Structure formats: C-alpha cells, structure tokens
Amino acid sequence: MTESYGAPVAVVTGASSGIGAATARGLAAAGYRVVLAARRADRLAALAEEIGGLARPLDVTDRAAVQDFAASLDRVDVLVNNAGGAIGADPVATGDPADWRAMYEVNVLGVLQVTQALLPALIVSGAGTVVVLSSTAGFAAYEGGGGYVAAKHGTHALTATLRLELFDQPVRVVEIAPGMVRTDEFSLNRFHGDADRAAAVYRGVDEPLTAEDVADTVVWAVTRPAHVNVDLLVLRPRAQAAQHKVHRTS
Ligand code: 8X3
Q1: Which domains does the chain have, with CATH numbers?
Q2: Sorted alphabetically, which Pfam families does this protein's record hold (predicted)?
Q3: Which burial class, exposed, middle or buried, applies to 223 when counting CB atoms under 10 A from its CB (0-12, 13-18, 19+)?
Q4: Nearest CA, atom 4, ligand 1
Q5: In the predicted model, what is the mean pLDDT of the chain?
Q6: CB 122 within 8 A of CB 77
Q7: What residues form DSSP beta bridges with 235?
Q8: Other Cβ atoms within 10 Å of 230 Cβ, number
Q9: 78-81 and 128-133 strand pairing
Q10: Running DSSP on this structure, what letter comes out for residue 128?
C-alpha cells in the first residue's frame, strides 16, 4: 500500500525517543506530514497520534525491511537520518568487536540503507533534503569512545561523500553534529543500562543540550530556502568548549 499526502513528507528515523522524537514534533509543527520510523512500535504509535503522523516500525539495519518501507511511500521531501547511538565505552584494548560492529551497522550502514532506498523519491520531489545526525565524535577521538568515534567518522564520511555525488541533483545534504546532549537513553545505552555511569556524564554540567535544542537546528536547516545548503552545523552546550574541555561545577 502506498501513502499519498498533500503536505510535504518528512521521514525521521530513530523517532521513538530523544532527538528523533523532538525532531518529529518540530517538523510536524512546521507543516510536514511526518513518517516516524523506529523499532519500538508502541512509542511510535503514541507519538504519531500526538502529532498526526504515521508510525512505521523499522529497523534501519534490516535492508529488506528498509526497502519495503521505501516502497510504501509515494512521496518523500525530507529524510532525517537520526537513528544511531553508542554501545559500550571500553578502551580499544578490550572493546567488544560485537559492540563495534553494532555501532557501524546502525550509525553508518543504517544511514546508507535508508538514504539509498529513499533517494529516488527525494530526487523526484524536486527539492529534497537529507539530514544526517552525526556527532562531534565524528571529528575528534576520546578515550573509551573508540567504536563510536570510528562509526561517527564513518557517518561524516558518508555524508560528505553523498553531498559531492549529488552536486547536480535537487537534493541538499545537511550534517548536524551535536556535542553533549542529555537525553533519556543515549548514555544509558552506552553504559549498558548503568544509570550511575550514565548520569556521571552530565554531572556538574550547567545545561547540556536538550533533544529540543538539536531538533531546532534540524528544523531550521530544513526550512531554509531550497537553494541554501547548511553543509555542517556543530552545536555544543556553552559549558563544552571542546570534546574534553567541559566546565563542571561539581
Ligand atoms: C554524542 C557526543 O561526546 O558523547 O554524540 O561523543 S559524545
């Protein structure tokens, strides 16, 4: 079954929580019909009802499922590749290759597969936008971040390459690279559910970024005139001057 809408359509992956959910809300408020894609169907259904969007359970690492997902849409104007994350914080010396592989799968191959599947529709739209949520980890290394840093460097490389390859197509390629963002799940996933270690990431930091802060930048970039391509936007909280230079009051 195909879906047909009058309003421009924005697909958001990883839309069940955090930056993805905030972005879905922001794009809906900006007039987009939002297609919410993520693995957790119950959360998607609730958000879809809230914003008048469409819930589509999807694992972006499942190539066949991604292709079926793409075939079910007959219009796509915006794709926000937000699904991603960190798994594990071990040093390179002891990191679990399974964690590294899983991070590459979701942060790089997930972006690749969804973008490949939706690119024909984005081109046909005549004014498509691909947004990729990378990370400041795509530009700097830090201890214990190896697998995530490697994957996000891959996310950045994919995005930069895609922009070059689409130079003569009516599709913008926007990269948003957030630094420290406090969401419910990012650090919890990184530390395999250890709430104390997850909370320590933000301890004493005056106002880490919120999911809404990042979503604001995505909506801003998407709603610029079609000829304006925000190539790369790095945003951090004021308290984080660089990856390691974080002001903590306790
Ligand atoms: C999240 C930013 O500093 O945890 O993408 O790598 S960081």
Answers
A1: 9-246 (3.40.50.720)
A2: adh_short
A3: middle
A4: 180
A5: 96
A6: yes
A7: 178
A8: 18
A9: parallel
A10: E
